[in-house]
Here is the input.
Amino acid sequence: KNKTIKRLDLFKNKISHQGIKLLADALKKNSTLQILELNNNNIGDEGAKYFAEMLAVNKSLQLIGLLDNLVMYEAIKELSTPPLK
Here is the structure.
């Protein structure tokens, strides 16, 4: 029910796949967060798919930082708008 936070930095937090799923589910209902930094969290393709599903609903997020994670190019394509070729 956040109405004020625009940037959330969760750098190097060792977030589990379950944690990523819960975060993505929560962001489906959020309309204020614009930047989400998840760099260096060992997020894999499964986590990227949770975010792709969330981005189909959430229109406020402008940037998701996923540097130094385990996301492969094919999963990143799903997150891109417009899609990468």
